[in-house]
Every structure is written in C-alpha cells, then in structure tokens.
Design a protein that fits this description.
This protein has 448 residues and is an alpha/beta fold. It has 14 helices and 21 strands. Strands 13-14-19-18-17-20 form a 6-stranded antiparallel barrel.
C-alpha cells in the first residue's frame, strides 16, 4: 500500500471546525483511493508555532514516499514552508481544496489564495511537486493526488532496485546498452552483470528431482500443441532454477539474458520457456537480448501499475497501426485463454519450446525509456490492441507458428515511427499515461 503524509493547513482566524471538516473529508478520499496516511491537521499559523512543531514532530521518522500539502484555506506561506523544509527531499502534492455553495451563495476559505501564494515559492525552493486544485461543483481531485503518490512510491522503489544481466550486448546491438552511472543518478536502479558460465555451473548442480518438480508443478499448466522433447523440458526447468537461485540471492527484480549469441549459440537452447517460468513463477520482469533500458522500463511500469509489463517488438507498420509481437514468449498474465506452447526451430537454431499463446486485446500504453544526447526521456503512446491477422516470421520450421502479438491501432503512426527508440517497447493495459508522466516528472525525465 502506498504510504503518504497528509498535512492540512488553514489560517488561525478561519473557523477551526471548517478546516477540520475539509481536511477530514480530503483525507478520507485519499484513503478510499488506497493510500495509507500519516495525518496531521489542522496546522495553523499560530503565533507560537505550536501547530508547526506538532506537524514536524508527528512526521519525523515516519515511513512515507510523498507529502500531501493540503491547503484548506488561506495560510501564510511561511507556516507551510516551516513544515515542508524538513522533508524537502520528498515529492510533494500542493493540493488546494475549494469552497462550497450555501443558500445560493458561494462560501470560500480562500484555498486558492493559499496555493497561488505557495506554488511559486515551492518552485523557487527547488521542490519536486505537483500542483492540484479542486473546483466547486466538481468531484474532488483525490484520484490525481493518489496517482502522484503512487508515482512517488515507484520513484522511491526504483532508487534501490536491482536488475540482473547475464552477459551483455547480445548480437552487438547498440540500442540495448546503457550508461550505468547516469542511470543510477537519474532513475535509480543498478544493473548487475554476471557471466553465463555461472548459470551453467549452477545448472550442472540441479538435481533430476528438482527439474521434475518444475515440470510437474509449473510446466504442466501449459497446453502443448505437440509433445516436446524430454531433454527440452528438463533443460528449461534446470536453467530456470539456476537463474532463479541467482536472482533470489542478489535481490534482482528484473532479468535479461544473452539470448541469440548466448543461450542459443553457446548452450544450444532457446530460452523462451526459461523466461516464461521466470515471469510467471518467480514474478520477475523479463526481456531478452540484454535489453538494459527495456528491463528498467519494465520496472517503472510494474511499480506504477502492478502489471507484469511485458515487452513486444515491432514487425510491420501500417497506415493506422503497428504489428507488435514476440518471437519467443509472453507472460501468462497477458494471455487470452490457455498458455499455449509448441516445439519449434528457427533457421539454424536448435529446437526449443515456443510460446504461441493468444494475447489479450484492449487499450494499451506502450513506452520506452531511452537516452537522447545524454539526457533520459520516455517515448510513450496510447493505442488499442487487437488480435492480428494470421502472420508468420520467415525462417520457422513449417507449418510456421502463429507468434503472439497485437495489431495496435494508433492515432498517428508516422509521428510514432519518427520517434521510435528501439525494437522493444513495454506495454501495459489501460491508459497509464498519467501515472508514467507523474513518475517521469519526479525523476526529471522528459516525455516524447
């Protein structure tokens, strides 16, 4: 549950019961949105500053990721700043409540007099904050406030997140690399690389009984269109356990593997079923081909939405849509119906277990973190994903598999194509643009 601090302000000469009533309603609205609040109100500009001290003492040492500065009426700026300066490292919401109608007249406590006096001050002080105000006759903006609080929580989690990278720069790709120090400075996560040799060494120690337990307990959930080789099943189970052991030991929440030049070329095993198990059973964010920023984008989206944040890559552009699919796997969370697999081989690669599941339709948000001229930015677009026509990628053994994918309708395909940043984009279901915008604002990342 997202934790936030809630401080309600009102001027000492305003009737105290009005300020309390307004703050209480605002706090209850945020709690109804799922926030866990540490609440302090009313805080006034009393001459001895007892309320200010009370607020600071109540919040010091408390665990929260966002400070909600709720302005329930006019308040001199100094009274607010004397509280907020103790927590200036926290993202804040400057939230102005509003008046009400009574017997045909408008009654106000001058909430927006307070916020308009404070907004520029917050900016000048260098705070990370969002300004939100309520309007008489419209629903209170509790959803917007809660959304920003969730983004602040995601930013805090990213600061200490860790991603595992087996190998580096698969296929010598350029767009999947990243700069570690700038990523740590701006976004927060650490990408730790380890050798594929370590996976192989651990794999050799996995017992036949442990492999069988994965086959019986996890892989038995899959619908096989054709029986896979026993060796393929055991390799998938064994490598999954080896990689999961590394992730568990080191606290990785996301993982990528050297795919084409690693698992396939050196070990002779396409890793699709390994990724499926890591995503579905271990709950990890997964992307192939050492895609560093793809992995980090997944963590950003996962922390914001709670979804698995799968990757899709582009195969074709149309006038009104893009064909986005995968040549290997999708997590079970986005499968429409049964998780369906089949043994298949591509080109000169060894036969592996390929996911051919149908992907859920619906509104989607596609995004990708990238670096442009040394600065991080997020390319993002909203679309609607539909089941595509029958299609195949040339090179698969015939009859070629129907790869998982979506034909995603976009408002402006040329504009998207002009800014596309990589073959891999991360999707989430629903319109999550507001959440992503809030997170990027907190991190200082521009939106494209």
């Amino acid at each position: 549950m997202t934790k936030a601090a809630f401080v309600g302000f009102g001027e000492v000469n305003t009737p105290i019961d009005i300020i309390v009533r307004k703050c209480e309603a605002a706090a209850k609205g945020l709690e109804a949105e799922g926030l866990e609040l540490t609440k302090v109100y009313p805080v006034t500009d009393d001459y001895e500053e007892k309320d200010i001290k009370k607020a600071v003492d109540a919040l010091k040492g408390k665990d929260f990721d966002c400070l909600v500065v709720c302005i329930a009426g006019w308040i001199p700026t100094h009274a607010v700043v004397k509280v907020t300066e103790h927590f200036r490292e926290k993202p804040m919401v400057l939230w102005g409540l509003c008046g009400w109608m009574e017997d045909g007249r408008l009654v106000t406590t001058a909430d927006q007099a307070g916020t308009t006096a404070i907004r520029k001050t917050f900016f000048d002080l260098g705070y990370t904050f969002k300004y939100i105000y309520d309007i008489i006759g419209l629903p209170s903006n509790t959803k917007k406030v809660a959304q920003y609080a969730r983004a602040a929580e995601a930013a805090a989690r990213l600061r200490h997140a860790r991603s595992g990278m087996a190998g580096y720069r698969d296929m010598n790709l350029y767009g999947t690399q990243c700069d570690g120090p700038s990523l740590k400075r701006v976004v927060g996560p650490e990408i730790e690389t380890f050798e594929m040799l370590e996976i192989e060494q651990r794999y050799q120690k996995v017992t036949a009984e442990a492999k069988q337990a994965v086959i019986d307990g996890c892989m038995s959930k899959w619908h096989f269109l054709k029986e896979a080789k026993r060796e393929s099943m055991e390799m998938a189970a064994g490598y999954y356990l080896a990689i999961k052991e590394i992730c568990d030991e080191r606290g990785y929440e996301a993982i990528s593997l050297k795919d084409v030049d690693g698992m396939k070329k050196l070990l002779g095993f396409p890793p699709a079923p390994i990724f499926m198990l890591l995503a579905d059973e271990a709950g990890l964010a997964t992307v192939p081909e050492n895609d560093c920023l793809g992995n980090i984008t997944q963590l950003m989206v996962k922390y914001l939405t709670g979804q698995c944040a799968p990757y899709l890559e582009f195969y074709e552009f149309f006038e009104d849509s893009v064909l986005a699919g995968v040549p290997d796997y999708v997590p079970a969370e986005i499968v429409d119906g049964e998780v369906t697999v089949m043994p298949a081989a591509f080109g000169e690669l060894s036969e592996g277990i390929l996911n051919v599941s149908r992907v859920k339709e619906g509104e989607v948000t596609m995004c990708r973190l990238t670096a442009c001229n040394g600065e991080y930015c997020m390319h993002m677009v909203k679309g609607f994903g539909k089941t595509p026509m029958k299609w195949e990628e040339a090179g698969w053994t015939q009859p070629a598999p129907q790869l998982p994918g979506l034909r995603i309708e976009l408002d402006d395909v040329p504009a998207f194509a002009e800014n596309v940043m990589c073959q891999h984009y991360i999707i989430s279901y629903g319109d999550n643009t507001g959440l992503i915008e809030d997170l990027c604002a907190i991190l200082g990342i521009d939106i494209i």
